Amino acid sequence: MIEVKALKSLLKKQPATEVHILSTEGDVYQVRIVQDDKEQLLTTDETGKPLKFKSLDEAKHKLKYLGVHNCFLQHHVAYAEMIGESGDGLQGDLMPIRLQESYS
Questions:
Q1: What is the pLDDT, as a whole number, of residue 37?
Q2: Where are the chain's structural domains?
Q3: DSSP for residue 6
Q4: Closest alpha carbon to 10 in 74, 51, 49, 68
Q5: 21 CB neighbour count, 10 Å cutoff
Q6: Tens of pLDDT along 21-34?
Q7: What InterPro entries does this protein map onto (predicted)?
């Protein structure tokens, strides 16, 4: 796990760090970090609890503030085994997310 402050420092040193927003059941969004194609780290707040957002916009706003450039959305299916899937319930490809609004 990586704290928000550490993530901000990491992004200054390695701006190409990939960030995944995980969409889970109950409109809960969590964030994972991919570093050098290695283990994904769940970001935490200062209390050590998993950082959770109640909307995609809330997550995007926080990540933009932290300096994230590469962000992707991934959907988590809680009951994957009920539809014949196995594994951790992460479904589909990563969908790129635009953090900067464009009004052109």
A1: 77
A2: 2-96
A3: H
A4: 68
A5: 22
A6: 998 888 899 998 88
A7: DUF6482
